[in-house]
Design goal:
- With 255 residues, this protein is an alpha/beta fold.
- It has one domain: Rossmann fold (3-Layer(aba) Sandwich), CATH 3.40.50.
- The protein is built from eleven helices and seven strands.
- Strands 3-4-2-5-1-6-7 form a seven-stranded mixed beta sheet, sandwiched between helices.
- The two termini are 17 Å apart.
- Bound molecules: adenosine-5'-triphosphate and magnesium ion (MG).
- Adenosine-5'-triphosphate binds next to helix 1 and helix 9.
């Protein structure tokens, strides 16, 4: 049985894809790991240097009426195994509308998949039917947040969505924690916001991960070079922090 992590926050540009690709890359060094890109922007797909054209993608698995087995949509790249996304996923809302099973497409697909210890899912900045598919299929949600004054905007909506899925569709779902990302540590505001995030985490009956992900320019460079940070700049702050975060996450998940 796989442990399925979903990285979610409906706020855009916060660090979801960076978190998902780094986590999957680091986990992939220890155990068989699959990254699933569930965002039509295809950023994780691009970082993994996976194809979108002329290959099967998540679209074929969860939207197409033929429902391709997910194993047939896995691409084995130099960075690791991935199910790529497709810009066509924006059509999901329309295509799955009114279909009661529409919320369970990803879960059904993953129930048929064997052999992966970890599955990491990157999601789009929206609370749409694809996110529901991810939450219904997942075990644990990782919520990246940044320490700016708008950081916690919309978090309660995400929390309500997670709790609603937990109550009705997936009792097994839990929030692994809030992860502070892109942290410069330079401003007092950041420190203040960090305290607020910690309080919000408590209210959500979860924790702020002890590990904080610091910023580093190498992160963007690695993404542009279509390489994992652990290969491109294994000693940079962001990479060292994601390694610590992965260890903290696994330790927590075992409890
Ligand atoms: N630790 C970091 N150091 C430096 N830059 C970072 C770091 N984490 C993320 N970034 C940069 O911030 C931007 C947004 O990150 P990312 O794409 O991971 O966010 P996202 O939440 O997935 O965005 P979207 O909501 O659009 O999917 C990217 O340009 C990325 O390179
Ligand atoms: Mg993204």
């Amino acid at each position: 049985m796989s442990t399925i992590f979903v990285v979610a926050n409906q706020k855009g540009g916060i660090g979801k894809s960076t978190t998902a690709t780094n986590l999957a890359g680091i986990l992939g060094r220890k155990a068989k790991t699959l990254l699933i890109d569930a965002d039509p922007q295809c950023n994780s797909t691009s970082t993994y240097d996976a194809k979108i054209e002329d290959v099967a993608t998540l679209y074929d698995v969860i939207i197409d009426s033929d429902k391709l087995p997910i194993a047939e949509a896995i691409q084995h790249t130099e960075n690791g195994d991935i199910v790529a996304s497709d810009p066509l996923l924006v059509k999901a809302e329309k295509m799955l509308d009114g279909d009661l099973e529409g919320f369970y497409r990803l879960k059904d697909a993953l129930d048929e998949l064997d052999g992966y210890e970890y599955i990491v899912i990157d999601t789009a900045p929206s609370l749409n039917i694809i996110l529901y598919n991810c939450l219904i299929a997942a075990d644990k949600v990782i919520i990246p947040v940044t320490a700016d004054s708008y950081a916690m905007q919309g978090i309660s909506q995400l929390y309500d969505t997670i709790m609603s899925v937990k109550k009705r569709q997936n009792r097994n779902l839990s929030i692994a924690g809030l992860l502070l990302v892109r942290y410069s540590g330079r401003s007092n505001l950041e420190k203040e916001t960090r305290d607020n995030i910690e309080k919000t985490a408590k209210k959500m009956d979860t924790k702020l991960f002890k590990t904080v992900i610091r910023e580093c320019i190498k992160t963007k460079e690695a993404q542009e070079a279509k390489k994992l940070l652990i290969d491109y700049a294994p000693k940079c702050n962001t990479c060292l922090d994601y390694i610590d975060f992965t260890a903290e996450l696994l330790k927590k998940s075992r409890k």
